[in-house]
Amino acid sequence: MNCPCCSGKSYEECCKPYHTGEKHAPNAEALMRSRFSAFAIPNGEYLMETTLPSKRKFHNKKDLQEWGEINKWMKLEIVNKPSISKVEFKAFYTDDEGNNQIHHELSTFKMVQNRWFYVSGEFLE
Ligand SMILES: [Zn+2]
């Protein structure tokens, strides 16, 4: 199958090794892409694991899993990478009522002991 993150590569050659824990995402964009794929699949466990440990209390695995499930994840577009730890993206999805939605976010990531984690996101119009 094509990777849900729209890289043009197969899932096996793209986000799957990150989801299975075989490899860690080497940079913020790769982590961002793998998190988008994890919503599409969905894989709430991976979304929690890739959140900075001190920020995990603001999220819960069940909600992440459900958010992934109820929406149909159509496309990911990387808009800008203002620094090595920031990625601006648009996630295109169809909600449970069939409306097309765009989630536009500037995400901040952080590297801790050679692994990238999602810290937080700023929602943009
Ligand atoms: Zn991918």
From TrEMBL:
<dbReference type="InterPro" id="IPR048469">
    <property type="entry name" value="YchJ-like_M"/>
</dbReference>
<protein>
    <submittedName>
        <fullName>YchJ family protein</fullName>
    </submittedName>
</protein>
<dbReference type="InterPro" id="IPR032710">
    <property type="entry name" value="NTF2-like_dom_sf"/>
</dbReference>
<feature type="domain" description="YchJ-like middle NTF2-like">
    <location>
        <begin position="27"/>
        <end position="121"/>
    </location>
</feature>
<dbReference type="Pfam" id="PF17775">
    <property type="entry name" value="YchJ_M-like"/>
</dbReference>
